[in-house]
Structure prediction request, 369 residues.
Amino acid sequence: MERVKLNTGEALVPALRALYERSGYSRYKMSKFEEYDLYVRNKDFLVSDSVITFTDTNGRLMALKPDVTLSIVKNSKDTPGFAQKVYYQENVYRISKGTASFKEIEQVGLECMGDLDAYCIFEVLSLACESLRMISPDAVLDLSHLGIVSALLDDLSQPPEVNEQLLKCLGEKNPHELRRICAENGVVPEKTARLVALAETYGPPAQVLQALDALDPPMPDRAPLDALRTLVGWFDGTPYAGMLRLDFSVVSAMKYYNGVVFKGFVPGVPESILSGGQYDHLMKKLHRASGAIGFAMYLDLLERFDRCDPYDVDTVLLYDETADLNGLMAAVAGLQADGCAVSAQRTLPEKFRARRVLQYKDGEVIPVE
Prediction:
């Protein structure tokens, strides 16, 4: 099977930065360090609660920052009637997805904080879509709305620990376990069926919204569903309409997040490379009066994918000591003009892998059998 070609090159990050700056987002720079207490108090917001710490010269326990959003929220202020729009290109220090060790990870993302309105939310989602399209034209953005999930869970009248179990099952798309937990806790079959339907429903917005409208009993609170319908409707006629999917397995910690949450995927990478959502609850927890929405791109996943290429180079061109230098240079330039990545070598090491091996001999380029 031919390997999916993604844009993971060095030009990607400058292109993302230019995209955000064109939309009025200014670059936010920060220190590598934060007080460890910030992460202890908000560990559920982090991708991983493992943090690298050290003691500062004044005795304070500091941390190499594992997250950018917390630092931005902590170090910014509310301005009535104004939305602060920033983007960042920062290194974070945490256990990388798919590994068991700490990594220095380059992360690019943006935050919109302040008096959020419908346009702010639409703009951030549009920028998330365009960021994904820069990597692959076949990228997908999965959307959910925590207001819908919360309304269904509240309607069950279960204690928080049961809701946590149900939320976990929803995130895992596990209808069997959802049914079991509901049965064990006395949830009536009609409400169980509605929750299971939410777990099993996935696809284009129009299809999913129609399925949710047909639920019997209907949704206990239609306001979040109508808000989601309005939001995805704004994308009709845009280049991003075909990228959107509704997927209610996209869930986040409800004590931090609210409203729309989303994840972005590209072909060939089994995990989401983009994650974001509204986090008004986090703002309130950090004594902010405003709302916020943002996303981050996990560039380490793209780097790991890029390294999955079984070849070190497209083409190796072998030559020997009798080769004419001018002729060899012309041969290399000719191959490069045809779009090949060329490594000119006198010998080919045993473990060096090339898609094809050619030889420059007597002024000609010939295949090596």
Remarks:
- The CA atoms of residues 84 and 274 lie 21 Å apart.
